[in-house]
Amino acid sequence: MASHPPPAEPSSKSNKLLELFIFFLLIDPCPRRPRLCLRQQGQSEHEEIHVSSGGVLAYTDDDDCESRRPLLLRTPASAECYSVSAAVFPFLFPALGGLLYGYDIGATSGATISLKSSTFSGTTWYNLSSVQTGLVVSGSLYDAYASCFNQAMHAAPMYIAETAPSQIRGMLISLKEFFIVLGMLLGYIAGNLYVEVVSGWRYMYASSTPLCLIMGVGMCWLPSSPRWLLLCAIQGKGNLPETKENATRCLCRLRGQASPDLVSEQIDLILEELSYIDQEKQASFGEIFQGKCLKAMIIGCGLVFFQQVTGQPSVLYYAATIFQSAGFSGASDATRVSILLGLLKLIMTGVAVLVVDRLGRRPLLIGGVSGITVALFLLSSYYTLLKDASYVAVIALLLYVGCYQLSFGPIGWLMISEVFPLRLRGRGLGVAVLVNFASNALVTFAFSPLEDLIGTGALFSGFGVIAVASLAFIFWIVPETKGLTLEEIEASL
Question: What pLDDT score was predicted for residue 412?
Answer without folding.
Answer: 87
